[in-house]
Amino acid sequence: MALLPIIEYPHPTLKKVAREVDLAEINDAFRKIIADMIETMIEAPGVGLAAPQVNISKRFFVVDVSNYYPDRKPFVLINPVILEKSGRQTFEEGCLSLPDFREDVERAKKIKAKYLDEFGKEQIIEDEDFLAIVIQHELDHLDGIVAADRISPMKRMMYLTKLKKMTKKADRAPVAL
Ligand code: NI
After folding, report:
1. I want to staple 141 with a disulfide (CB 3.0 to 4.6 A). Which of 50, 67, 88, 172 is the partner?
2. How many Cβ atoms sit within 10 Å of the Cβ of residue 8?
């Protein structure tokens, strides 16, 4: 297994709509990348990591919510699609690709989604809590959207100004690696 470098905003891959994974692509080599992504996410540490964040513009992400759902091991969602969503919840989100980002983001409370697992088998997932937030956050990454795009223009401008200053001074700790 290997740790993968996590790219940061405004890297162009983070702004691209990622392409679907073909069933034929889901083989041992692909599962090795999934294992590396899970290791990278845990090491970061993070609760989710989308393929575009390790510069792979394909529609899959890994999730580790074992701190909140003890029965759930880290897992992958390939080609996820939200089938139903309802309600609203707000959570202070961070992102491994957005240094120092911490803002309230509003998302659906309850979601139902389908995805393929690491063997290409279709699965259905439903949640109305933290996992629902993580899935929506990671799904955004597959559509070229970051959490900073989900806050008010004023707050986004303030964050981007702060990010520019941090990059210039290079006074922030590196994220993962
Ligand atoms: Ni993120």
Report:
1. 50
2. 19
